[in-house]
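Review form for a predicted model. The reviewer records the input and the model, then writes brief findings.
Reviewer: anonymous (R2)
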Amino acid sequence: MARQRRRRRFGSPLTRRILAINLITPALLVVGILYLDQYRSGLIGQKIAAVEVEANLIAGALGESAFSGPAEIPGLEVETARQLVRRLVDATGSRARLYDIDGGMLDDTRPLTEIVPFDIAPVAENGFVDRVLDRAYLALAGLLSGPDAVEPYVEGPWSPISEFPEVMQALMGENAARVRGLPDGARVVSVAVPIQALRKVRGALLLSTPAYDVEKRVREERVTVLRLALGVLGVTVLLSLFLAGTIARPIRRLATAALAARASQGRRVEIPDFGSRQDEIGDLSVALRGMTEALYARIEAIESFAADVSHELKNPLTSLRSALETISRSEDEEQRRRLIRICVRDIVRLSRLITDIADSSRLDAEIARSESEPVDLAAMAAALEEIHRETGPEGAPALALDTGPGDMTVMGLEDRLGQVARNLIDNAVSFSPPGAPVILRLRRQDGLVRLEVEDRGPGIPEESREKIFDRFYSDRPAGERYGTHSGLGLAICRQIVEAHGGRITAGNALAEDGTRLGARFAVELPAAT
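Model under review:
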């Protein structure tokens, strides 16, 4: 009970497992989207290309307009170059550095101290949800970003050319680009291009610009993805809870009912019926209901059997006690001998009852423990016919065997099925007049093997066709010695046949004119496949 309370408090373990499994995939997707940098790398590449185009345009303008002097060795007009560069980069917000052919810096459009990284405004400033998502993004990005792979953007005013390898590469006639990182995580894109005049490199131009627009776009996209992912996670949680409810709740109800049935001490407990679900839980519900019904039926059968046994044992014991008390007081020798015969008869009856009761009580358990095997009823019937012919008393009814075509094999226990056939044959012989035949008939039809035992006795009254299978019911022929039968034979036959998945019925063999010829017992068993 304490464990059940803990389960109710913290939720079903099955529900937690379903939630965990279903949330792994979208969670990994979110982590992957926040962690991978392909989108940012693509935007940085586009940013480099745009800055390179801008730098080439400025370098081309400088090459055409800022050089004067002899055609062989044109000189750079520094002031003209400064004004031209400042005018061209003023609208773009980029920082331009101008270097001569020896690597000396001629101009810097904006001192480093003026470059102050500015905070990127949230994607949506007014919405509470957007602010929460923005803060969640920053927290997740901080956790997932890991160590920065780019070199930091650190320099002092008028930094030497050695700190800018891209400028040295540009002075050799090649365009070069470099990406560095600011303390706030943004990137600075630097592109260096050569300045050419008369097809010779006369200097280098370095354009640097912080890629805040790239970071803003990345941040907007990732917040959008995060919003979508949270929606997917929410839907996943709801669907997982619904799925867990359709699985865990019925199982919990079935488990509770099973515990209640175990503690009910024989009182009936209704198992929930989920058979309409048409799934494994429905199958489990049907199986549990069938199992509990079978257990209740077994309990009721045991109680009824115990009551019947008590009643049947009481009669011979009462008769035996009365006879013994009378013997102790009687002085008539003839009466004493008669009373002794009564005692012997009651003892024989008690012995027969106890034997049949023991056989009936262990029958189900024996069949459940034993392994079924193919049993050829035709061969068994032939053996019974031979035994009856060789060992039957003189003048006893003959046993006529009538076996039809087809395989008469069934699955079961040969000893117990033989017991059924022997009981029916003995019962038919006891009711048949001398010289009349007892017919043992075998037929196969519709996937069943049908065994019939037919006699030429008085038959069975219509009102007794079911009662004769009741325990201790006895309607024996006149003149039969008392105590020979316990009234359990036909009940045991039905018990064995039903345990093998078959059925046994009683009826009468009729002539063409409707005259009753005798009793007929029929056993139907599933044929072996």
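Findings: Residues 1-10, 112-126 have pLDDT under 50 and may be disordered.
Further findings: The chain has 13 helices and 15 strands.
Recommendation: see findings above.
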